[in-house]
């Protein structure tokens, strides 16, 4: 979790906490992990004096002027790794960025450029913060790059009010692949008694849901038809928030399959 950084020190730095009752470097590291006044990002340990310094800064925010003064010889500076664990959950109308944070976490996760309209502060029991951003609208600023790709940026702010140089901005994206569905509809046309109408839908992809409907002149689904009755064929998608739909290669075939009529090429 922590890595030693040579040529750095916390001496004469602001916002440094002096931890007492520490005898080893491991004890100083443990004190940094469990510190609650701020998110401890680095610590410095002096084996000779048993001095343990904790700080919310790391090598990204400590200036070059703090590099190894003579009074800091023999001290060891360690900081947390800079990697942030992030995963995405892509829904039909939204994208959710799930960030693993260091607990206790008193900051917030928000969409870049929308710190007050689109943010999350709640931390799950497993130490994750999840920010859900709609794909459309201006609330969170999600952009559509075309070809089914939506992008945004989230900011991990560790202080509840102040954005510091140690905070992180993460670019996130969701890709929605174009899918094709083949629809087959079967019907039996008889003279006289009405017969039930059977529909079969087969798909090459799990989403989005698409169905084929046969309607009468009043717009209601039909269970059976008579010869000469006016019918309407309707293909509809249940969720039109993100995906589009178009039809091609639509044929009407006779019962024996010997005659066909192209409805849509």
Can you describe what's shown?
Pfam families: PAN_1 (PF00024). This is Apple domain-containing protein. InterPro entries: Celegans_DevNeuronal_Protein, Pan_app, ZP_dom. The chain has about 260 residues and is mainly beta. It folds into three domains: about 1-80, Hepatocyte Growth Factor; about 85-175, Zona pellucida, ZP-N domain (Immunoglobulin-like), CATH 2.60.40; about 205-265, no CATH class. Helix content is about 5%, strand content about 40%. It has one helix at about 25-35, and strands at about 1-5, 15-20, 40-45, 50-55, 75-80, 85-90, 95-100, 110, 115-120, 130-135, 145, 150-155, 170-175, 180-185, 190, 200-205, 210-215, 225, 230-235, 250-255, 260-265. The strands form seven sheets. The protein has a five-stranded antiparallel sheet, covered by helices on one side. Strands 8, 9, 11, 12 and 13 form a five-stranded antiparallel sheet that branches. Strand 20 and strand 21 form a beta hairpin. Mean pLDDT is about 75; it is low at about 65-70 and about 190-205.
Side by side, the strands of the main sheet go: 1-5-3-4-2
Largest sheet composition: 5 strands, antiparallel
Strand content: 35-45%
CATH superfamily of the largest domain: Zona pellucida, ZP-N domain
C-alpha geometry: rod-shaped
CATH class of the largest domain: Mainly Beta
CATH architecture of the largest domain: Sandwich
Distance between the termini: 61 Å
Spell the H/E element sequence.
Answer: EEHEEEEEEEEEEEEEEEEEEE
How many separate helices? 1
Low-confidence stretches: 65-71, 190-206
The chain-level structural class is mainly beta
Number of strands: 21
What does the radius of gyration come to? Answer: 31 Å
Number of domains: 3
Give the helix level as a range of percent: under 10%
Mean pLDDT: 76
> Which fold name is given in CATH as the topology of the largest domain?
Immunoglobulin-like
GO biological process, one term: anatomical structure morphogenesis
Pfam family, one: PAN_1
Domain Apple: 1-83
Protein name: Apple domain-containing protein
